[in-house]
Write a structure and sequence with these properties.
The complex is a heterodimer of chains A (632) and B (597). By secondary structure, chain A is α/β, with parallel strands linked by helices. Chain A has 20 helices and 16 strands. Chain A starts with a helix and ends with a helix. The radius of gyration of chain B is 36 Å and the shape is elongated. Chain B has a six-stranded mixed β-sheet with strand order 6-9-10-3-11-12. In chain B, strands 2-1-4-5 form a four-stranded antiparallel β-sheet, with no helix packed on it. In chain B, a hairpin with a 2-residue loop joins strand 4 and strand 5. Chain B contains 22 helices and twelve strands. Chain B has 597 residues and is an alpha/beta fold. Classes of the chains: A alpha/beta (632), B alpha/beta (597).
Chain lengths: 632, 597
C-alpha cells in the first residue's frame, strides 16, 4: 500500500516488460515479430499492383477488348492473390503465436510473482494486507492481457507504417517533411502531457483498486458480524469512500486517455491543411526543392505528399487507439514488478541437515531412509564434518524488537536439553509467541545468540533448520485437497501407511475413517467442512508425519468440546513424547508436567522452574495458578 | 438480455454522459467522414492549379471541421470515461449494498473470494466493455454505414460485393463466439480457483514456511497456472481467427474487383462501371475493412465481458431471504423469549432438521446456560432469536411478539449476539467498539470494557483506546479479542445478550468476573451463554442441555448434576485434574499475544 504513493510509473517499466517477454519466448517472439512485419509489408504492396492495374485499364478501357489485356491484368491479379495468401498465412501464424505468447507470458509472470512471494520474509505478510497482495495477481496481471495481445502488435505495425511513410516523404520533399516533423513533435508533446497524466492516474487507479479489494475482502469476511450489529449503513458509508476514490481516479485516468485519440487525429487534420498551404506557397514562390529524389517541387509531388500525410495520421490514430491499454498495462506491470522486486528472505547458512547412520562409532552420510539425522558442514580442513541431530536448543541473552524501536524481549535465556518439555506462561504481550518465532528464524534477533545442538542457527540453512522443527500453530491452517494430502504436507514422500500411522498417533484416525470418503475426503477452503477440533487433529498428524526432533506448540484457544479437547490433548502428548518441546500454554493444566516452566512478563523471564518449585516459591506463577482458585 | 437489463439499472445518474457519449461520437464520426470529401476537392483544385485563395478557403473549412471534430471527440471521450467508470462505481456500490441486505442464508451461499472477484475483476471487465460500446460501438457502425453508402454512390452496382461477403463474415464471427463462450465460462471458474489458491497460500504462509514447503507450493501453483494458461490459450487461439477472417474477406473483395471489375470495364467500354467507380471501390474496401475490424474488436470485448456480466448479475438478482414485515413493530417491550414448537433446517431441500420440537420459555432477565457437544445445534438455536435465520416451523417470540413482526434493525439492536466466529475490523479499538453504539461516549465505552474485563488490558496498551487493530484483529490475543467483542455487544445496551462460546479463550477467573458483572450491573438483561466449560454456566438460573438438535434436559446446576448423566460426565471430565492433584479444575491463563503475530 505504501508503494502506491510513490506511484509515478517508473520509466523503464516498458523496457523491462519487453525484455521479460523476450526472455520468456526467446525464439517464438522474434519469429512472431517477423510475421507481423511480413504481414504489414505484404499488406502494403497490393497498392502498387492496384495502381498498375488501374493504369492498364485507363489506357485500354475504350477498346472493349478484354482478351487483349486479360493476360497482363490477370497475371498481376494472380501475383496479388499469391501475396494475399502469404499475408493471410502470416496473419494467421502471428495471431496464433500472439495468443500463445500472451497467455504464456501471463502465466510465467504469475508463476514468477508466486515464486518470488514464496521467498519473502514473514515480515512482508505482516505488513501488507492480504487483499492488497491478491490484487497483484488479479487486477494488475489482468491489465497486461490487452497490452500484450492487442496493443503491442498494433504498435509494431504502426511503427513500421510510420517509418515507411516517413522515408517516402523524405524521398519527395524535405521542406514538407520538416513541417510533418514539427507536427509529430507537437503530437509527442501532447502524448507526453496527456498520456503522462493518464499514466499517473492509471497507477493511482490500480492502487485504489487494490485498496478497494482489501476493504471488500475484510468486510465480506466479517459480513455476519456486520449483520448482527446492524452496521450495514456504516459499512456502506465506508465502502462509498473507497469506491468513490476509485471512481475519481479511474474517471480521470480514462478521461485523459480518451482525450488523446481525438486530439491526435485532429492534429493530423490540421497538419494536412498546413501542408496544403505550405505546398501551395512553395509552388507559388518557386522555392527550390530539397529531396532524396532530386525532383523539383510540383503538383505531382504535393498531391501524393498530402495523401501520404493522411496515411501518416491514420497510423498515429492507430497508435492512439491503443494508448488506453498501453498506459493501463504499464501501470499494472509496474506494480507487478514492485512485488517481484521485494527483497527475498536472506539465508547465509551453510550447515545442512543430512540423513546418516552410525558405523564404528562414526557418523556416516547415507541416502537410505534412516531415523537418524546429522548436521553437516565443511570443516576448515575442507572435509565434511558431522554432528548428530539431538534437539538441544539454547537462547542466550536474546534481545528482540519487531520494529527496531520497541524492544519486545530483553536478555532472554532459555535452555532446552534434548527431550525436555519447556513451557512458556505469561500475560499479554509478554513475548511467548515471539520467542518461538525467533527459533525458526521467522524474525532475526537483535542481540544474543540462539544455538541448536551447539550450532548458531544463523549458520544453519533456513530450510534445514525449519525441517528440524515441527510447529503447530494456534490457528489451524489446512489447504484445499484431501485429508491424506494435508497430512502428507508434513513429509512429501510419506507413504499412505506412514500418514495413517501419524493420524493414529494423533488420535485423528477415528474420525477420518468416519468421514464420507475417509482419507480421500476433500477439504474445502481451510477445512471449513470439519470441526475446529478435527482440524487441529489433522494438523497434529501433519506435524507427526514430519517427525521432527524439536516441536513448537502454540496451544489452540479456540473452543472445542470437552470430549474432542481430551482427544487433542492426548494426540499432543503422544507427539511430544521423546522430543524437545516448547509449549506456549494457555491452560495451566497442560503445563504442570513440563520439565521447565518459564514465566514471562514484558519480554523478560521472571521465573523459571518446575511446577512444584514455582508453587513452592509462591511467586507470580503461584498467583496465576491460585487466581482461579480464589474465585471458585 | 436479462443480464443487460439487470446491469443497466446501475447506470442511473450517469445516464446523461452515457447518452452524451454516443451522440457526440456519432457527430465526430460524421465530421470525420466529411473531411475526406473536402480534402479530395482541395486536391482536385490544386491539381487544376488553383491559387492561394482557394487553398485558404478550403484550409479554413478544414480547420473549422477539425476543431469541431476535436471538440466533439473530447466531449465524447470525457463523457464515456465518466459514464463507464461511474457505471462501474454504481455496480460495485449496488453489489456491496445488496450484500449488506443479504440474510445469513444468502451469505452462506456465496464464497468470499468469489464475491471479491466479482466486485473487482469482473466489474473492471464490464467497465472496459461498456466504455468501448458507447464509444467505438457507435463509431464503428457510423463509419461502416458511411463507407457502404459511399461505396454504393461512388462504385455503383458492383458495391454489392461488399454485401456478399457479410454472410461469410457473420457466420465466421458467430462460430468463433459460439466456440469460445463455453471455453471462457469454464476458464473463469479455473481462474477463480487459481486466485483462491494464492489467497490460501498468503493466509497460510506461516505453515508453508514452517514445513519448508515453498518449492512444493511453487510446483502446485505452476500446475494450476499452466492449467489456466492452457484453457485461456485455447480460447484465445480461436478468437485469434477473427483478424485473419477480416483480412480474408477484404482480399476476396479486392481480387473480385480487380478481376471481374477490370473485365466489366473493358468489355462494356466503361458503361457498366467506369474507372472512377472502380478506384473508389478499391479505396473504400479498405475503409470498410477498418470499420469491420473495429466491430470485431467490440465483439471480442463483449464476448470476454459477457461472462463477467453474468456473474455480477447473479449477485444483483439474489433476493434476500429475510425481509422486514410491512408494518414492523419498532419497540421490544422486554427480554423474554419464547420458543413454541420450533423446528429448523438451513435449507428447504435439506432432509434433516437441525433443531426440532423446541419448546422453551425464558423470562426477562433470566440467565440461561447452554451446553452441548459439537453438532448439537447450539449456535443454530440462538441465531433464531435475533432472526438471523427464519424458523422452518413454529414461532420464536421476543417480548411476547413474533420476531417476524419486528423491524429487523430494532430486533437486532435489542438482541445482541457475540458470534462464535467473531471478527474485529481494522481501525482503532474505539472505532471497533462504537459498532455497538456509534454515539457512545468515552465513558460509556470504558464502562462497557470494565464490564467485559477489557479495560484493564486496553489501558496497558501505549495508545490505550486508540490502539490500532490490524485486519482480522491479529495483534490482540484470542482472549482479548473475545472480551472486546463482548464489550462491543454490551454497548448496544440490549434487552437480550447472547454469548456464543465467547469466553473460550478467556481464563476462568476473568470469565467469572465477567459473569459477576453481568449479574450486578445488567440484571434486567436476559443472558444466554453457550459454553464448553461447565464452570461458565454453573451459576446460570437454568442450564439447557442440547443434543442432536433437541432439548435433552433443563434445570439448575444442582438438579442436572443429580439427575443428568451427560452433565455429570462433562463435569467429571472437566474436574478430573482436581481430583488427581487435589487442586482446582480448569485453571487457565489467558493466551497472550495473538498466536499469529
Amino acid at each position: 500500500m505504501m508503494d502506491n504513493n510513490k506511484s509515478l510509473m517508473k520509466k523503464d517499466t516498458a523496457k523491462r516488460l519487453i525484455k521479460m517477454l523476450f526472455s520468456f519466448y526467446p525464439k517464438l517472439l522474434p519469429f512472431t515479430i517477423v510475421c507481423i512485419l511480413f504481414n504489414a509489408v505484404v499488406s502494403a504492396i497490393p497498392a502498387m499492383f492496384q495502381q498498375q492495374v488501374i493504369a492498364i485499364i485507363e489506357e485500354n478501357w475504350r477498346t472493349g477488348d478484354w482478351s487483349a489485356v486479360s493476360g497482363a491484368i490477370l497475371s498481376k491479379v494472380f501475383i496479388l492473390a499469391g501475396l494475399y495468401c502469404l499475408s493471410l498465412i502470416a496473419a494467421i501464424v502471428y495471431n496464433q503465436c500472439m495468443a500463445i505468447i500472451t497467455q504464456g507470458s501471463l502465466k510465467k509472470m504469475r508463476v514468477k510473482m508466486f515464486d518470488g512471494m514464496q521467498n519473502l520474509p514473514i515480515r512482508y505478510f505482516d505488513q501488507h494486507e492480504h487483499g492488497d497482495i491478491m490484487s497483484y495477481y488479479t487486477n494488475d496481471v489482468d491489465t497486461l492481457r490487452q497490452l500484450i495481445s492487442v496493443a503491442m502488435p498494433q504498435l509494431l505495425v504502426s511503427a513500421v507504417g510510420i517509418t515507411t511513410i516517413f522515408c517516402l516523404m523524405m524521398y519527395y520533399s524535405l521542406w514538407l517533411t520538416i513541417i510533418v516533423v514539427g507536427g509529430v513533435f507537437i503530437m509527442t508533446k501532447v502524448v507526453k502531457k496527456v498520456g503522462g497524466g493518464s499514466g499517473k492516474y492509471f497507477m493511482k487507479q490500480q492502487g485504489a483498486l487494490a485498496k478497494t479489494e482489501g476493504f471488500i475482502e475484510e468486510m465480506m469476511n466479517g459480513q455476519k458480524v456486520i449483520k448482527v450489529f446492524n452496521h450495514e449503513t456504516a459499512a456502506e458509508a465506508d465502502f462509498d469512500k473507497v469506491n468513490d476514490e476509485l471512481f475519481r481516479v479511474a474517471e480521470k485516468a480514462n478521461k485523459y486517455a480518451n482525450t488523446l485519440m481525438p486530439i491526435l487525429g485532429n492534429i493530423g487534420n490540421i497538419l494536412y491543411v498546413i501542408l496544403a498551404f505550405a505546398g501551395g506557397a512553395l509552388l507559388f514562390l518557386k522555392v527550390p526543392n530539397v529531396s532524396l529524389s532530386g525532383l523539383a517541387l510540383s503538383i505531382s509531388i504535393t498531391v501524393p505528399f498530402l495523401n501520404m500525410e493522411k496515411q501518416f495520421a491514420g497510423q498515429i490514430g492507430g497508435i492512439s487507439q491503443q494508448i488506453n491499454a498501453v498506459v493501463m498495462g504499464l501501470a499494472g506491470a509496474s506494480r507487478v514488478f514492485t512485488i517481484m522486486d521485494e527483497m527475498p528472505e536472506e539465508d547465509e547458512g551453510h550447515v545442512t541437515l543430512v540423513k546418516c547412520r552410525e558405523a564404528d562409532g562414526r557418523i556416516e552420510e547415507t541416502t537410505e531412509r534412516t531415523e537418524m539425522w546429522a548436521w553437516k558442514w565443511i570443516g576448515e580442513d575442507g572435509k565434511p564434518q558431522y554432528k548428530k541431530l539431538a534437539g538441544d536448543v539454547v537462547l542466550k541473552d536474546v534481545d528482540f524488537s519487531y520494529d527496531g524501536k520497541h524492544t519486545v524481549l530483553h536478555g532472554v535465556n532459555v535452555f532446552a536439553r534434548p527431550g525436555q518439555k519447556v513451557a512458556f506462561v505469561g500475560a499479554t504481550g509478554a513475548g511467548k509467541t515471539t520467542i518461538t518465532n525467533l527459533i525458526n528464524r521467522f524474525y532475526e534477533i537483535q542481540d544474543g545468540t540462539i544455538t541448536y545442538d551447539g550450532i548458531d542457527i544463523k549458520d544453519i540453512k533456513k530450510a534445514d533448520l525449519r525441517h528440524s522443527l515441527g510447529i503447530i500453530l494456534q490457528d489451524t491452517v489446512l489447504f484445499t485437497g484431501t485429508v491424506m494430502e494435508n497430512i502428507r504436507y508434513g513429509k512429501l514422500d510419506a507413504s499412505d501407511e506412514e500418514c495413517i500411522a501419524a493420524a493414529k498417533l494423533a488420535g485423528a484416525d477415528d474420525f477420518i475413517e468416519r468421514l464420507p470418503e475417509g482419507y480421500n475426503t476433500k477439504l474445502l477452503a481451510n477445512g471449513s467442512n470439519l470441526s475446529q477440533g478435527q482440524r487441529q487433529l489433522i494438523s497434529i498428524a501433519r506435524a507427526a508425519v514430519a517427525d521432527p526432533p524439536v516441536m513448537i506448540m502454540d496451544e489452540a484457544t479456540s473452543s472445542i468440546d470437552t470430549h474432542t479437547e481430551a482427544i487433542v490433548q492426548k494426540g499432543m502428548d503422544a507427539l511430544m513424547a521423546g522430543r524437545t518441546v516448547f509449549v506456549i500454554a494457555h491452560r495451566l493444566s497442560t503445563v504442570q508436567n513440563s520439565d521447565v516452566i518459564m514465566v514471562l512478563d514484558h519480554g523478560k523471564i521472571i521465573e523459571r522452574g518446575s511446577h512444584d518449585e514455582l508453587i513452592a516459591a509462591k511467586g507470580n506463577y503461584y498467583q496465576l495458578y491460585t487466581g482461579a482458585f480464589e474465585l471458585e | 438480455m436479462n443480464v443487460v437489463r439487470t446491469l443497466s439499472k446501475s447506470i442511473r445518474e450517469f445516464r446523461i454522459p452515457a447518452i452524451k457519449s454516443p451522440v457526440f461520437v456519432v457527430l465526430e464520426s460524421l465530421i470525420e467522414t466529411i473531411i475526406p470529401f473536402v480534402t479530395a476537392r482541395l486536391i482536385n483544385e490544386i491539381k487544376a492549379g488553383c491559387g492561394m485563395d482557394t487553398i485558404t478557403k478550403y484550409g479554413l473549412v478544414l480547420i473549422a471541421l477539425a476543431m469541431l471534430s476535436l471538440t466533439f471527440g473530447v466531449v465524447a471521450g470525457n463523457a464515456s470515461a465518466t459514464a463507464a467508470t461511474g457505471f462501474s462505481r454504481n455496480l460495485r456500490k449496488d453489489i456491496f449494498y445488496k450484500i449488506q441486505d443479504f440474510s445469513f442464508e444468502n451469505i452462506d451461499r456465496f464464497q468470499t473470494s468469489s464475491l471479491v472477484t466479482r466486485m473487482t475483476t469482473d466489474i473492471q471487465n464490464v467497465q472496459m466493455a461498456f466504455m468501448m460500446l458507447i464509444r467505438i460501438g457507435f463509431r464503428a457502425p457510423v463509419m461502416l454505414i458511411f463507407s457502404f453508402a459511399t461505396a454504393f454512390i461512388m462504385g455503383g452496382r458492383m458495391a454489392w460485393i461488399f454485401v456478399a461477403v457479410i454472410p461469410i463474415l457473420g457466420i465466421g464471427l458467430f462460430s468463433v463466439i459460439r466456440m469460445v463462450m463455453p471455453l471462457f465460462r469454464a476458464v473463469f471458474k479455473k481462474y477463480d480457483a487459481l486466485n483462491d489458491s494464492v489467497q490460501e497460500n498468503v493466509n497460510g504462509m506461516r505453515v508453508v514456511k514452517s514445513f519448508v514447503r515453498e518449492e512444493y507450493e511453487k510446483e502446485k501453483f505452476n500446475i494450476a497456472a499452466t492449467d489456466v494458461q492452457k484453457d485461456f490459450t485455447r480460447a484465445e487461439r480461436i478468437l485469434a481467427f477473427n483478424n485473419p477472417l477480416m483480412q480474408f474477406c477484404l482480399y476476396v473483395v479486392m481480387i473480385f474487383v480487380l478481376s471481374f471489375g477490370s473485365y466489366t470495364i473493358i468489355s462494356t467500354k466503361g458503361v457498366a462501371l467506369d474507372v472512377g467507380q472502380y478506384s473508389a471501390l478499391l479505396t473504400y474496401s479498405f475503409q470498410i475493412l477498418m470499420s469491420l475490424m473495429m466491430v470485431s474488436m467490440i465483439f471480442v470485448m463483449v464476448t470476454l465481458s459477457a461472462e463477467s456480466a453474468e456473474r455480477i448479475a447473479e449477485v444483483l438478482r439474489e433476493e434476500s431471504t429475510l425481509t422486514n414485515p410491512p408494518e414492523p413493530v419498532m419497540d421490544v417491550p422486554d427480554g423474554s423469549i419464547d420458543f413454541e414448537n420450533v423446528s429448523f433446517k438451513y435449507s428447504k431441500k435439506a432432509e434433516r432438521f437441525v433443531l426440532s420440537d423446541i419448546d422453551l420459555h425464558i423470562r426477562s432477565g433470566e440467565t440461561i446456560g447452554i451446553i452441548g457437544g459439537t453438532g448439537s445445534s447450539k449456535s443454530s438455536f440462538i441465531q433464531l432469536i435475533p432472526r438471523l435465520y427464519d424458523v422452518t416451523e413454529g414461532v420464536v417470540k421476543v417480548g411476547n411478539i413474533d420476531v417476524k413482526n419486528y423491524d429487523l434493525k430494532t430486533l437486532r439492536d435489542q438482541v445482541a449476539v457475540v458470534l462464535q466466529k467473531n471478527v474485529l475490523f481494522s481501525g482503532t479499538i474505539k472505532e471497533n467498539l462504537r459498532w455497538g453504539n456509534p454515539k457512545a461516549t468515552d465513558e460509556e465505552i470504558i464502562e462497557a470494557c470494565r464490564l467485559a474485563q477489557a479495560d484493564e488490558f486496553v489501558q496497558r496498551f501505549p495508545d490505550k483506546y486508540d490502539t490500532f487493530i490490524t485486519q482480522g484483529g491479529t495483534n490482540v490475543s484470542g482472549g482479548q479479542k473475545q472480551r472486546l467483542c463482548i464489550a462491543r455487544a454490551l454497548l448496544k445496551k440490549p434487552k437480550v445478550l447472547i454469548l456464543d462460546d465467547s469466553t473460550s479463550a478467556v481464563d476462568t477467573k476473568t470469565d467469572a468476573l465477567i459473569r459477576k458483572g453481568f449479574k450486578e450491573f445488567i440484571p434486567e438483561t436476559t443472558k444466554i451463554i453457550i459454553a464448553q466449560r461447565v464452570s461458565s454456566v454453573e451459576d446460570a438460573d437454568r442450564i439447557l442441555i442440547l443434543k442432536g438438535g433437541k432439548i435433552q434436559d433443563i434445570g439448575t446446576h444442582e438438579e442436572l448434576l443429580s439427575r443428568n448423566e451427560t452433565y455429570q460426565d462433562l463435569y467429571k471430565a472437566q474436574n478430573k485434574i482436581t481430583e488427581e492433584t487435589g487442586d482446582v479444575v480448569s485453571a487457565s491463563v489467558e493466551n497472550t499475544e495473538g498466536g499469529e503475530r
